[in-house]
Design brief:
This protein is an alpha+beta fold. The chain folds into 3 domains: about 45 residues; about 110 residues, no CATH class; about 140 residues, no CATH class. It is about 30% helix and about 40% strand. It contains 8 helices and 15 strands. The strands form 5 sheets. Strands 7-6-15-14 form a 4-stranded antiparallel sheet, covered by helices on one side. A 4-stranded antiparallel sheet has the order 8-9-10-13, with no helix packed on it. Strand 11 and strand 12 form a beta hairpin. The longest helix has 22 residues.
């Protein structure tokens, strides 16, 4: 700023000297120079950081604000019969950044002490890999922290949803049906000690979240027969079926009641092993047997508590679907 002030003062003096040649007196010229110099010094003093304001370098994790999000559906278990081609499912949109980091930097430059970014020597702000790197004075850091907190409050909190399918005995199923839907910590721990299936989803409050855990099983389900002169040729047609658990959930937080309104769709698919086979003229085809258990429900759940969302039969055995919602701090 001193260099800027000297440059402006020199330019002003040159202008005043030029005017003096047109009729200004020496005394008037000196007064004008003193006045303009005082104005420039006052301006520089306003923009100069206060005494004791030293530059501080900090990094800010903004991955929750700049993370890439998408609104996609869960992959539903499928078993396609021979000679049948269903319509293709619409493709989900590519995940996009909720807030581009360059936009976030521009927002901070414009609304957090904008004059200091040019007037404070060495002040800088940059971003890389969903982190901000800021070098400036403490009061600007305080303003940045306030703006980031406001953005996190306005763009929504993050939630984590756990969905588990737990086999139970008929006696346990009867007890669970007659008890409140919310389980105690001891009851939940006893159920989860047994082998069970689980899927986990994490995302924004109010967004549809999809998750799955399992595997695709490939099988030979048909032959494409071609007739060539007096011979026939059968080209194998592979297919696949999903075996495992999928869930599609939407959790809307209720901050006042410390709970969440939950929309839940769960599919649990079991495929018998080994796969059945059927001989044909061109070779054996495989006929998977799929047992599909589905749950569709909506309920209100308290945060950080395990709740029975419903019951079903899985592999000929009763099972309960447990759900737990947590609010993630950012």
């Amino acid at each position: 700023m001193k260099k800027l002030a000297c440059f402006l003062a020199a330019a002003t003096v040159a202008s005043v000297v030029a005017s003096a040649e047109d009729g200004f007196s020496d005394e008037a010229l000196l007064r004008e120079i003193d006045r303009l110099t005082a104005l420039l010094e006052a301006r520089v003093a306003v923009e100069r950081p206060a005494a004791g304001d030293e530059l501080v370098a900090r990094s800010y994790d903004v991955s929750d604000l700049c993370s890439r999000v998408g609104d996609r559906s869960a992959i539903v278990p499928n078993l396609l019969p021979s000679k049948f081609s269903p319509p293709e499912r619409p493709e989900a949109g590519e995940p996009v950044a909720r807030m581009e980091i360059d936009f976030l930097i521009g927002l901070l430059l414009e609304h957090v002490e904008p004059a200091t970014w040019a007037s404070v020597a060495g002040a800088s702000i940059s971003g890389a890999r969903e982190r901000l790197f800021v070098r400036t004075i403490p009061r600007v850091h305080a303003g940045i922290a306030g703006v980031l907190a406001m953005l996190r409050e306005s763009t929504g909190l993050q939630v984590a949803v756990e969905v588990r399918a737990v086999p139970v005995t008929p006696e346990q199923a009867t007890v669970l049906e007659t008890r409140p839907r919310e389980l105690t910590d001891e009851e939940a721990a006893a159920l989860l000690a047994a082998p069970h299936r689980a899927v986990f989803a994490r995302g924004r409050d109010g967004r549809r979240l999809a998750c799955r855990d399992g595997q695709d099983i490939s099988y030979l389900h048909d032959f494409d027969v071609e007739i060539a002169q007096e011979a026939t040729v059968g080209d194998p047609i592979p297919n696949r079926v999903f075996c495992g658990m999928t869930a599609e959930v939407r959790a809307i937080l209720d901050r006042a009641a410390d709970g969440a309104a939950l929309s839940l769709q769960v599919d649990v698919a079991d495929v018998d092993r080994p796969l059945r086979s059927q001989p044909t003229a061109h070779g054996a085809i495989e006929l998977p047997t799929l047992e599909l258990t589905r749950l569709r429900t909506g309920l209100w759940v308290p945060l950080d508590r395990t709740v029975v969302a419903g019951g079903a039969t899985l592999g000929g055995q009763p099972c309960v679907i447990l759900v737990r919602v947590r609010r993630l701090r950012t």
